[in-house]
Amino acid sequence: MIVTIDGPAGAGKSTVARMLAERLGFDFLDTGAMYRCVVLQGSRQEVDWEDDDALGAIARELQLKFDKGSVLLDGEDVSAEIRTPEVTALIHHGADNLQVREAMVALQRRLADGKSVVTEGRDQGTVAFPDSQCKFFLSASAEERAKRRVEQMRQTGKEVSLDEVLQLQNRRDQQDESREVGGLRAAEDALHVITDGMRPFEVVEHLERLVRMRM
Ligand code: C5P
């Protein structure tokens, strides 16, 4: 069984998808981490961002592993590095590149093959797994999402202003929504869940009930 969770940045997808996978005994796929690794590798190899083929080749050759919540690139734990603002600012180069998207969708399908999986991203219910029996579209107001991000950063010792986060978030929402292939949109058969005012465990319990009804 494939459970897809799509939605904008900061909607709480990663936390919720990880917890849901654990409760269901499913594998968890963090597809945002995949795009982040492509861009990190591109940056390390000083790729020409205008050269679609070069970044496409990096994506096809990517040696990526998920190990107990860590992301390993060429065997190195890059879980923290892929989430830096520098990588986030470059992410559109990977996400807008059709060769990269094709390679990532192929990788996602390979990783899910023969397994029960909770997968989260932007295009999981629409492009990667359109036949999934259980699709969710998780969202929250822009303000609430930005507040959560500020709190998350604070917990890792970084102080950022709400305005700054909101501005970057709006830009990323706009980039994600306007992408023609693999853009952020809800599948027609997705269940919409608005998470404003909900704690992660409440969202997980709600989703778990819905998944179990379909199992
Ligand atoms: O979810 P996360 O913030 O880690 O994703 C980083 C970026 O990767 C997103 O803003 C989006 O541009 C891109 N992405 C994507 N398709 C996915 C997952 C992420 O285009 N399935």
Q: What is the gyration radius calculated from CA atoms?
A: 16 Å
Query: What string gives the helices and strands in order?
Result: EHEHHEEEHHEHEHHEH
Bound small molecules, by name, code or SMILES, are: cytidine-5'-monophosphate
CATH secondary-structure class: Alpha Beta
Structural class assignment: alpha/beta
CATH topology: Rossmann fold
Number of strands: 8
The residue-averaged pLDDT reads: 95
Tell me the distance between the termini. 8 Å
Strand content: 15-25%
- Ranges with pLDDT <50 over ≥5 residues? none
Specify the CATH architecture: 3-Layer(aba) Sandwich
How many strands, what sense, and barrel or not for the largest sheet?
A: 5 strands, parallel
Provide an overview of this structure.
The protein has helices at residues 13-24, 31-44, 52-61, 85-95, 98-112, 124-128, 142-155, 162-178, 200-214; strands at residues 2-6, 27-30, 64-67, 70-73, 76-77, 117-121, 134-139, 191-194. With 215 residues, the chain is an alpha/beta fold. It has one domain (2-214): Rossmann fold, CATH 3.40.50. The protein has a five-stranded parallel sheet with strand order 2-6-1-7-8, with helices on both faces. Strands 3-4-5 form a three-stranded antiparallel sheet, covered by helices on one side. Strand 3 and strand 4 (70-73) form a beta hairpin. Helix 2 packs across helix 4. The radius of gyration is 16 Å and the shape is globular. The structure holds cytidine-5'-monophosphate.
Which key features would you list for this structure?
single chain; 215 residues; Rossmann fold; five-stranded parallel β-sheet; three-stranded antiparallel β-sheet; 9 helices; 53% helix; binds cytidine-5'-monophosphate
